[in-house]
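Attaching the record inline, Q. Sequence:
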Amino acid sequence: MQLFQKDFFKDDSRRVQKFTDAFLSDMHRIVSLDVDYSGDKKTESYLKSKAVRSFFGIISWILSLRNFVVDEIITLATRGTNRTRGPPDYESLRARIHELNTPALALIFVSQSRLLFKYVFRFIRMLGEEAQQHGFKDPVWRELTTLLSKSPAALHQFEKVFADVDNTIRHIYKNERLSDVERKDIEREMLVSGSIPPRLWPAVKALFTTTLEMVMKEFNLAELYFHDVSWLGLSDDPESDRWRKSHRLDVIRKVEIPMHARIRRCTRCCSVMEDIAPPRGAAGWLINMWRSCICGNWWMSIKGEDEISNGTR
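Structure, as predicted:
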């Protein structure tokens, strides 16, 4: 789904829903990497290392998305002009979510996205462990180790945030004896509006106080704040706007496409990918996704100079 075309930000009230829906679509496909890669135990290590390189763009995208979510949550948790941490009241939080127009809190509280994040983190952690086993002998694994080490927050720290939120929400559902229908209604409201229902307010307070106070001691807050997330296209700030106008992002591989390269454009959601043949030794998931867009629709080939991207996925 090409979310960030010129008219996208004209309807701010729908931005959270549009992004969350597209994010879940993306994550569904990315989770398939875990199954495809971890299930292929007979692959020779040489081909395996060549296939790993095809994951680099997606890993960078996930890590940047993770940093964006953490930074946005810290912003939501602050209050007052001195930005002291602490939970705002419920109405103040709703107003702040509307003001920032951010999907960050919904991505953590919607159970489906938490589950998808869990599988993606497991996949990245699995690759990191295998990279350590290879050491610095193979340049591909060495490059992966460098990529994973650049993040201002370790993977397990973010997993801690998700685990605490998940446990708190489960506790609330159990104590209030909510039916499956009531739980689905709560999930639907978060997915559609991006706001958190009053019933889950105790989970928000726990996240903004106990959980954040614990994990923020291990975060490099300066690096987190200045980490460049403009290429994610999740904001209408000047930096993100400039990136959208001057760059194109391959929606499949999550890498930048040269401006004059031949591309494929989705006939439904307008996402783009570079029109090249899958590299030799590419992972099976990559070859399969070459056939159709991440939204499931067909590609249309276009010359690079005929397509001026209005944004990125």
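The first strand starts at residue 78 and ends at 79. The beta strands are 78-79, 84-85, 263-266, 272-274, 299-302.

More tomorrow.
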